Each structure stands twice: as C-alpha cells, then as structure tokens.
Amino acid sequence: MRADxxxxxxxINVAAFLRSLGVGLMGVVLGIYLxxxxxxxFRIGAVIAIGLAGSAVATTVVGFAADRVGRGxxxxxxxxxxxxxxxxxxxxxxxxxxxxxxxxGMLNGTGTERSATxxxxxxxxxxxxxxxxxxxxxxxxxxxxxxxGSVGALGxxxxxxxxxxxxxxxxxxxxxxxxxxSGLYLSxxxxxxxxxxxxxxxxxxxxxxxxxxAPETKRVIGKLTALFSLDSFGxxxxxxxxxxxxxxxxxxxxxxxxxxxxxxxxxxxALSHLGAAWLARRIGLVNTMVFTHLPSSLFLMAVPxxxxxxxxxxxxxxxxxxxxxxxxxxxxxxxxxxxxxxxFASAVTNVxxxxxxxxxxxxxGALMQVFTFSAPLFVGGGTKVxxxxxxxxxxxxxxxxxxxxxxxxxxxx
Length: 413
What we know:
This protein has 413 residues and is mostly helical. It has 2 domains: 1-200, Growth Hormone, Chain: A (Up-down Bundle), CATH 1.20.1250.20; 214-398, MFS general substrate transporter like domains (Growth Hormone, Chain: A), CATH 1.20.1250. The chain has helices at residues 2-36, 41-69, 71-91, 95-104, 116-124, 131-154, 158-166, 170-192, 215-236, 240-251, 255-283, 285-302, 308-322, 325-335, 342-370, 375-395, 406-412. Helix 3 (71-91) packs antiparallel against helix 5 and helix 12 packs antiparallel against helix 16 (375-395). It starts with a helix and ends with a helix.
C-alpha cells in the first residue's frame, strides 16, 4: 500500500502540473480570444462567470458525491468534462454553445486554480502519507501548480508564433491552442485512471458512513469556512489583474515589465510553499498561517506610500509570504477531520472561498472609481489582517494530531 500511495502522489502531482499549464494559459488567452472573435465585454464576462459557476456547482457535488462514486473515477469525469469545454472553444465561436460548454467544462479564465479537481485532490493527498508528511506533500503539490501556471501563461505567445512562423491565421492559431488545452486535460484523465484504491475512502466504512459528516465537524468546518470566506473576500480586491493595473497606472510600468514582475511573483509564491512546510514543523500550522500572512498584508498596505522601487520591494516581500498559508491551510483542514469527511470539508471551504473571492473582485473596481485609486490595496489588506487576528484567536489552541504532545495522543487513543 505504501508503494501504491507513493505512486498515487506522483500521478496526482503530474496531473496537477499538466492541468495548471492549461489554467495559466487560459487565464491569459481566453478573454483576448473572445474579444478577437467579436464578443463584447459583457459577453466575455458572461462566459467567464458561467465557467466559474460550473466549477462552483462541480465543487459542491464533490463534497456530497465523490466518495460514493469513487474519488479516482470522479477525477476522471471532471477531466473529461473540461476536455469537452476546450473542444467547444476549438469547434465553434457561437455564444449559446460556448455558454453551455463553459458551464459543463468549468472553463477557468481567472488564471488561478480554483477547480473542483483542485478541491478533491486536497482531500486525497493527506491520506497518501503520514500526518508528519501531510503539509510537505501539499506544499510540493502547490509548488507544481504555481510552476505549471507560470509556464502555461508563457504559452500565450504561441498564437503569434504559429502565425508568423507557420502562416496560421491568428484565429486558427488560437484553435490549435485550444486543441492543446483539451489534450492536456485528456492526458490527466488517463493519468487518473492509474490511481490505486489507496485514494479512496477506507472500505471498512459503511455506505452510510461514507459521505456522512459528524456534527462537531460541521461546527468546526463552518467556523473555518466563515473565516476563509473573509480572507478570500479580501483576496478578491488583490487579483493579479488589478494589482498589475495599479502598477501600470501609478508608476507607468509597461506590459513587458509587468510580465517580468509577475513571473518573479509566481516563483516567490512557489518557493514559499516549501518554506511553509519547513516552518509549520517548527511552530505549528496555525502559527505559520498567521505569522506569515499578517505581515504580508501590512507590506501590501504600505505599497501606496512608497516610490516605484520601494513599492516593488514591498510587493515582492508580500508575495514571498502571502501564500505560505496555502499548504498549511489545506493541511490544517485535513487534520481536523477524519478521512471520510475530507471531501466534504475541502469542497465546502473551497466553494465559499471562490464565491467570496468573486464578490471581492466585483467590488474592487467600484471602490477604485468611488474612492481612491489605491482603495483595494487598503481594503483587501485590512480585511486580511482582521481574518488573521480572528483565526489566531479562534484556533490557536486547536492543534493538528502531529502537533499534540505524545501524552495527549495516548490519552486520545
């Protein structure tokens, strides 16, 4: 079983990297492509919103059905559905079909991994290793996702390359790109077929137990979900698109300069996941989440007061810390529930984060227009500070199993 678990981790990590190539690519090209085929801003927004809605529905279904259907099988289904979404982009520019397949295919135009597959993998990975390895395994998983997203974003230059080097029409080159996107997801479906029974809920559980959730779990996850929603609402004010626009307007950074800035940002994000796993072993999951996240928000709120170079230094410092709570948060949620409840816990927390992230994003533009141009940085950073303080106050005494003293573990047994 140990060999199977190691192989399953490799399969999931490779699949996550391939999937994130598509996520990073689509985050850059989807809106541009839809604009080039004549879609208005409203229609582009509708396609992206419908795709996110499809992802939210699928993530909700994960929480209640994945363990009954089978996690490996469910991962394959999600990959095939996303493949169909990419094929729709390849096949037809007609709005009704694109809207339908954006929903079914869970098209993600945000450039950030927020899919139902992402939520389900977070439920699977903690069961493939010991408690002491859980955070490290999730950190490596997130490194590969960030790395894949960065490389995928660079693929946005392929249409121009195909056009100039191989005489493709520009729209024809985009269609080749979407075919490649579909191929990436089809390859992940093949990979998921290689997963062993180790990814499933323990078969000693009864059918009634699989998918059921204890009242205490609902209480704890409900409280965490409320806090994570607050954090995600603040994060919605601080999307890459909005922050890059802020630097463009405030300091006149070019698209080329911003591309280099955000490539460096994603590298810092990826490396920070590994630092988070190292730090969590020494000071605990909640402490790592709060003690890295809180200063990152303060750095961000100081950015509007700095010169161009100072603002970039503060922004890079922020990005080196801000995602250290990602693998630790995922690990903490998994640690507080039994394996048969992890799909539910991951789905609920991820759906809430996605919804409130979207609300924050929608609010940010209005704040810029009605108040000061830097308002999203202050509101987003301030909201995250409040989240950190509330999280520490509420959960600093609730430890993951590997953080408890040996005597306490024996008593619990």
